[in-house]
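How a chain folds remains the central question behind the approach discussed here. This step matters because it turns folding into a mapping between discrete strings. The sequence in question and its structure tokens are set out directly beneath this paragraph.
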Amino acid sequence: MLDFRHFALGLFAALLTSSAAFASAELAKSKNCVACHSVERKMIGPSYTAMAERYGKDESAIKVLSEKIVKGGSGSWGQMPMPPQAGVAPEEAEVLVKWILSHQ
């Protein structure tokens, strides 16, 4: 019986993790992030993996990048500015940043 409990807990944890990742990918699509960003290749903006590599160990990254999504910014990745995303709530921006940083 103990083995079944461990299996069930592991399965439950895996489902929670994968559904959160899926939900964040869907959020990125619904907020049109994919028009400028891709998981592995640079488009108009940097790839999610490049952002995760640059900011993954930065303790202030979630706050800073969430604000940059909502308010916009420029200069971090070249001349192309990140326009403000008024349709993204601060809470959604935080979810997106956590998902982006998971691409390490």
Observations:
- The chain has one domain: 2-101.
- Confidence is low (pLDDT under 50) at residues 11-19.
- The chain has four helices and no strands.
